[in-house]
């Protein structure tokens, strides 16, 4: 059952949507995107047939170390040139205007953190280097290995945005959520970088 985004989380939504301004404007057309429909499946990549190339539009993300198994919905770019975010707490959002998992550059997937422990990425800050992330799309599953986690103050996000939204080079994956709630607003962005396993 989909958990709708309560009004109290507007701060997180605005954080992710508001600080991700000045996204690259020379984005490739991602083509048609299907909605998430892939059923949940076993964890480890050893039990999967992994694709060598692109997963196609991602439909599911799994992080065994955190107990995350969630749908991925495509999100776009607002008229203000900021990244959209998922409308539900238990869904993640893949930035469809950027890279597809398994292709050159970083595929970017965002999810919410909630004080009620209902956010899909509530535990993202606890992920460790070497942890595995599986992304399944219409063309198959790809495995990524976490290389680092950065916790960046909101005012400093622009300094790391080029690395997050990298559109060339090796295939990578970036996960993001809000961090450090001070009772009124989120003060940081948690950014997880992973490389193709």
Automatic annotation (TrEMBL):
The organism of origin for this protein: Aeromicrobium halocynthiae
Keyword Signal: yes
Residues in coiled coil: none
Pfam family, one: Sortase
Keywords: Hydrolase, Signal
Cleavable signal peptide: 1-22
Name this polypeptide is given: Class F sortase
NCBIfam families with a match to the protein in the record: sortase_fam
């Amino acid at each position: 059952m989909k958990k709708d985004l309560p009004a109290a989380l507007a701060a997180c939504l605005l954080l992710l949507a508001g600080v991700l301004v000045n996204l690259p404007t020379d984005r490739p057309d991602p083509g048609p995107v299907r909605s998430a429909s892939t059923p949940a499946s076993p964890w480890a990549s050893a039990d999967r047939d992994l694709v060598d190339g692109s997963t196609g539009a991602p439909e599911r993300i799994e992080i065994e170390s955190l107990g995350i198994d969630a749908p991925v919905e495509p999100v776009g770019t607002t008229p203000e040139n900021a990244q959209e975010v998922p409308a539900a707490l238990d869904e993640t959002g893949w930035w469809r205007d950027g890279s597809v998992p398994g292709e050159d550059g970083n595929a970017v997937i965002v999810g919410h953190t909630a004080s009620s422990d209902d956010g899909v990425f509530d535990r993202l800050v606890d992920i460790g280097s070497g942890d595995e992330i599986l992304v399944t799309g219409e063309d198959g599953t790809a495995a990524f290995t976490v290389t680092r986690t950065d916790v960046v103050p909101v005012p400093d996000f622009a300094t790391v945005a080029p690395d997050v939204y990298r559109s060339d080079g090796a295939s990578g994956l970036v996960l993001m959520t809000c961090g450090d709630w001070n009772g009124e607003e989120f003060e940081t962005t948690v950014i997880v970088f992973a490389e193709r396993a």
